[in-house]
Here is the input.
Amino acid sequence: MITENLKIVEQKIQEACDRAGRDRNDVTLIAVSKTKPIECLKEAYDQGIRNFGENKVQELTGKIEEMPTDIKWHMIGHLQRNKVKYIAGKTELIHSVDSYRLAEEINIQAKKRGIVIPVLIEVNVAGEESKFGVSLDHAEQLIDEVASLDGITVKGLMTIAPYVEDPEENRPLFQALKNLSVDIAAKNKDNVTMDVLSMGMTNDYQVAIEEGATLVRVGTGIFGERNYNKQ
Ligand SMILES: *Cc1c(COP(=O)(O)O)cnc(C)c1O
Here is the structure.
């Protein structure tokens, strides 16, 4: 099933790139494997997937141990400060920096290891109360604060759009995030690039690609429904 699903997802990514006049190589598919067993990740790996996303620290570190070393791991979930030490240096990108206090802890752990940790700033574009992320209005201030820490480098922005029946409803949110990234990039801030735009999930990744996503995070569309009771 995973192999067939990946073919479908790949085709849909290509179609969205074609519609938007974008190069397929400018979009990276992150397979979101949370709650899924290692066999599932291995099947995706065998199909050429090298970017995986997880949202829980313990599950992430466990899977890192069990999977090949050429994988790029993405921390996409809300991150607690006391858990940063377990993943520092192990991830390609932390997508979910939404406070200066969290960034400070990432900075401390980076300096301990003599590394610089790449992050995205998570923006709650829709302003949903249930979601993490800095508001659009406060995003630039947070970017400036985070960029002042030299154990961190800001690579771009991430958002989790609401679940909607019609993905077209999320298009304005993706446009808003893209606009913010263009505005910030134009200011040429030290220690900030806006090369990465992490947006789009199973339900809306094609729309996100049309609006400029460089990373799409697809779980259900690759691995099928998640069963949270059976973990
Ligand atoms: C679970 C999750 C995804 C994947 O969601 P699907 O709808 O299954 O594709 C993407 N991003 C984040 C942050 C997630 O937690």
